[in-house]
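Retro notes
What went well: the complex prediction finally ran end to end.
Inputs used:
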Amino acid sequence: MMKIAVDAMGGDHAPQVVIAGIEQARDQFSDLEFLVFGDEPQIRKYLHNDQRITIVHTTEVIENNDEPVRAIRTKKQASMVLAAKAVKNGEADALFSLGSTGALLASGLFIIGRIRGIERPGLMPTMPTVDAAGRGFNILDVGANAENRPNQLYQYALMGSVYAETVRGIKNPRIGLLNNGAEEHKGDELHQETHKLLAASKDINFVGNVEADHLLQGVADVVVTDGFTGNATLKAIEGTAKIVMKSIKHAILDQGLKEKIGALLIKGSLSKIAAKFDVSVYGGAVLLGISAPVIKAHGAADARTIFYTIKQIRQMIAGQTIQRVVDYFDQHQITEEN
Amino acid sequence: MMKIAVDAMGGDHAPQVVIAGIEQARDQFSDLEFLVFGDEPQIRKYLHNDQRITIVHTTEVIENNDEPVRAIRTKKQASMVLAAKAVKNGEADALFSLGSTGALLASGLFIIGRIRGIERPGLMPTMPTVDAAGRGFNILDVGANAENRPNQLYQYALMGSVYAETVRGIKNPRIGLLNNGAEEHKGDELHQETHKLLAASKDINFVGNVEADHLLQGVADVVVTDGFTGNATLKAIEGTAKIVMKSIKHAILDQGLKEKIGALLIKGSLSKIAAKFDVSVYGGAVLLGISAPVIKAHGAADARTIFYTIKQIRQMIAGQTIQRVVDYFDQHQITEEN
């Protein structure tokens, strides 16, 4: 039985959609058990049956505008803090929240703790690709850090590789370095040094530099980048996809009868495209480098996304993703090189 | 009469499309004169009439894979080098090329020279926005540099502001700093320090941090960023817009008769969207910080884009964009602060 600690109070529609997603996953996967942290009366209101679901009543909630480190230290009865403590104490195998990314990072770092040898955990979503294989790509760090050093990016490559293999079932995942050109000398010192570390490693399948306009084409299974560039790149991709789709929808629907009929005829095809760029089926963003699976879903996530995120967490536990990273760093004792 | 030095040998379809674009602009704007550098027999082959067009025969061409600084030093008879020298010597007011960005940057820096006081020129395209005003935005640096310091980003803000006012006719242009969050303390040291410089300046209309997913919504008229992040963001936006549009096209046209009829009905609307994201009407990317207008159009640009780029150059000369920047820095003697 795998046990997931869920912070039920994070996100825009908590705890309703969180409970709906949990029940869906509980019904589908008989090997899952949940420790649900939050306001018990509110949770009970939406819960249909509590089979394999244990509610832990909590009285505080961390808000998105709370200063993260301060919040986890002062709001000791917060659902996120107590859920993290349950993972720390071995009462649960993984932590899942839709709440503040900063507070979740702080909870991971200061309550659960880093994997020994890991310098800086990185935030890693899974994104779609439009190539024939269409298996998507992981990218990290997308914002857990504002700055990174070469060895940290190398650690992202190692961890991302294990994740892609154990969770996504990709053998020998292709690792790319996000850079401003294909040639190996490209970029600033950080990226030049990182390129050397990645190229020298026998433990990853490094395919060289990749550029931001090619990521959706599936040029790499795992893209490593510093948290600042990764954050801008992820937001640029998500924002642009959303805006282009929305513009098309408006351009068609705000027109006359002819366009409305045309829109009806191609509706199915457009939905398929929208589905292709729908990241919810890929689950949440993993805070990779913490000594247990810690996963963040978007605050606006619906029950379906929460279901997929739980499915992803289950795969991380079953695939022993974190244990494999722990073992690797124990064996290799990778120390700070830069 | 304004005189533009054109490197006719750069780009994928040189010199044919370059000549076509020049003739179109010459016919439309009676105050334009051209000094066209390139292989005379090839140019003559495409030229319909040489009114206000002087051909300067050159025997070498800088290729995209030439090492930029080395290329401009060894290929002394290259069309780009000789065009840059014509600007340096006052025989022309502006330099226009579709060739290697790196070589054009080197030509700007080492042949024409920087504006006094400017630390690092930045590459600045104009991008579309989908807001009601739809006036687009400028973003710099998008890759002339792999690293930047705070004062350089501040100089981009000052120069971008003058450009938006003189070329795009925007009064009091809104300047945004590309960052990983809206709050002023966000980002690494570079962005925190830059935020302070921008917020303290009385010479620009600073609207604070902007994020990459909001740029197409028109949150700022000029977005300043370091060359590494700017490069990734620009490529992510362009690549995503292209891929989403292409996916939609395929999804519709690769389907059955129903979709094909539907596609016909909405064709006009889709074209309007494609046009909205068509950056060619915005002209080329300006190498801002060089003591004359230096503009680079994409290697794949067609005659229409070349026409619009020439129109943009004309506006830069008529609006005295560079002279205003020169005057500003002469008066303020902004020196390296960081």
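What we learned: Chain B touches chain A through 57 residues (CB under 8 Å).
What to try next: split runs per interface for comparison.
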